[in-house]
Design brief:
The structure holds two protein chains of two kinds. Chain A is mainly α. Chain A has a single domain, classed as Up-down Bundle (de novo design (two linked rop proteins)). Chain A contains six helices and no strands. By secondary structure, chain B is α+β, with helices and mostly antiparallel strands. Chain B has a domain of 130 residues. Chain B is built from ten helices and four strands. The two termini of chain B are 32 Å apart. The chains are: A mainly alpha, B alpha+beta. The interface between A and B is medium-sized, with 14 and 15 residues.
Chain lengths: 189, 324
């Protein structure tokens, strides 16, 4: 009479402890994603802030290559706007910006006086490092999302993830067509 | 690919723990044999072991917490910031993000020989030092490869191993040296004491102690070097995983191997920490039991294996470096 009750209580306690453990692990993984995304946001913001400076610095030299500059400015504007539309759209807009910046730097290569301009060189270095940091943060973010998505989709977590509101997260990834943007070689040596 | 990297890192940690344990055992055995031989009884051996272990752990703990500052000071490294070395700081920050470690402190060594090292006790207390020659001779991509290599040492906890085991190996050498000199100068009178007291056992222990005193420094050094060479390969592979660009590191290795300059601030105590062996000249930078690093050409060819490129001969690598 007594023993079955004790067993039932024991099993219930065990399940509750297990559920708490799973919940905490999921919360922690979700926080890591937010952290990784915040890291990317900081660098994207920095890149958006640097671009007007670069455009101003080269504007005087590039009388006839206005198209390159307006492309960069437009790409920047849509990247800033895409900031509120979730990782996938944001990634696509940022990829556009990256490729327009590459064409800008390719044009800079044709202007010896620009290549020697200390201000332009500094901006170029700043943008290069920001871009690399974005790329590496993105790898980190995607790895974190993959880990989280795998966790919520596997047993026994999958039983709790849905009811507790843990949904799949988006990768910060290039759209398929954005990946086909022609690669302008930009050697910054 | 990812899992093999993690396996490699796990195996790396296991190996280094075993190696460190072996070095400690050697140290204790040496202390015991010396104590036994000098005092003539196991009690003396135990006392000497305890003494050696206490002194050894004190040195180990001391190094654990301040060895990095010592190494940096000995190498004449000066800390830099965003204002004084913007590109270097940028590259280090990029690689720190890629390796997912906190931003380390960055130091510059005023020397024209291109080289770099990382030190510290864990990723939160890490420092990376590069020479001015490295900054002058390498382009951005190559620098990224070298910094990726150094931050791999940070992430894989190689920096801790190299600090602590470095001290243990040094302590063994000092202990053995001390004993050998002691027996050489004072051994005569000891021998007479022992003859009058009798006891063949002590004589045997004495011989064992001398043998250990000769062998222990060598063995511990071999262990240290073998682990070090292995870790250089692993750090190269990890650097590529981080940068996603094998060619920067490959070119950096080729350029540095073609550079005959010797790094003046490096010495026998710190040479194993550097990106490439800072002391030996190019022809001598070959693999062998007593070298701190694998031959650069072997490192280049391991990278080429990862990318599916055919291996190079040393002259070809030198030519690649000459192309700039």
């Amino acid at each position: 009479m007594e023993l079955p009750i004790i067993i039932v209580i024991g099993v219930v306690v065990l399940l509750v402890v297990l559920a708490i453990g799973i919940y905490n692990a999921l919360v922690q993984k979700r926080l890591r994603i937010d952290e990784a995304l915040a890291q990317i946001e900081v660098q994207l913001k920095r890149r958006h802030d640097l671009i007007p400076n670069l455009v101003n610095a080269v504007k005087g030299y590039m009388g006839f290559e206005q198209k390159v500059l307006t492309d960069v400015t437009n790409a920047r504007a849509s990247a800033v706007a895409a900031g509120a539309q979730g990782p996938a759209q944001q990634a696509a807009a940022e990829n556009m910006l990256t490729s327009s910046l590459r064409s800008l730097f390719a044009v800079v290569e044709n202007y010896p006086e620009l290549k020697a301009n200390q201000n332009v060189l500094e901006l170029q270095e700043q943008l290069t490092t920001t871009e690399n940091q974005i790329a590496f943060s993105r790898q980190h973010y995607n790895a974190t999302v993959l880990d989280y998505n795998t966790t919520i989709a596997t047993f026994p977590n999958v039983l709790l993830a849905g009811p507790l509101g843990f949904t799949k997260r988006e990768f910060f990834d290039a759209e398929p067509e954005a990946a086909n943007v022609p690669n302008v070689d930009l050697s910054l040596s | 690919m990812a899992s093999t990297f993690h396996d490699q890192i796990a195996a790396n940690r296991r190996n280094s723990f075993l190696m460190a344990a072996l070095v400690v055992v050697l140290f204790a055995a040496l202390g015991f044999a010396i104590g036994f031989a000098i005092t003539g009884g196991p009690a003396g051996g135990v006392a000497a072991t305890a003494f050696a272990l206490v002194v050894g752990s004190l040195a180990g703990v001391g190094t654990y917490f301040s060895g990095d500052s010592l190494v940096l000071a000995v190498s004449g490294a000066k800390e830099v910031d965003e204002a004084s070395a913007p590109q270097l700081m940028n590259v280090v920050r990029e690689m720190a993000i890629a390796a997912n470690v906190p931003m380390p402190k960055v130091y510059l060594i005023d020397d024209t020989a291109p080289n770099a090292f990382a030190t510290g006790r864990d990723p939160k207390h890490a420092s990376v030092a590069v020479t001015t020659g490295l900054l002058e001779k390498l382009d951005r991509e190559e620098l990224q490869g070298v910094i990726g290599h150094e931050l791999s040492h940070v992430r894989n906890y190689d920096i801790r191993f190299s600090l602590v085991v470095g001290v243990m190996v040094g302590a063994i050498a000092i202990l053995a040296d001390f004993f050998l000199r002691f027996t050489f100068w004072g051994g005569g009178s000891r021998g007479r004491d022992r003859d009058s007291g009798g006891g063949g056992a002590q004589m045997i222990v004495f011989v064992i102690a001398i043998a250990l005193a000769i062998l222990a420094p060598l063995i511990s050094r071999f262990i240290q070097l073998a682990v070090n060479r292995q870790r250089e390969y692993l750090a190269d592979a990890t650097a590529i995983e981080l940068t996603r660009n094998p060619y920067g590191l490959e070119r950096a290795l080729a350029k540095i191997s073609g550079d005959a300059e010797v790094l003046e601030v490096a010495n026998r105590g710190t040479q194993h920490m550097y990106f490439t062996n800072p002391i030996k000249r190019f022809e001598q930078r070959s693999s062998g039991l007593m070298s701190t690093h694998p031959a650069i050409i072997d490192r280049i060819n391991r990278l080429r294996e990862l990318t599916g490129d055919p291996p190079l001969a040393s002259e070809e690598a030198a030519a690649m470096a000459g192309l700039e």
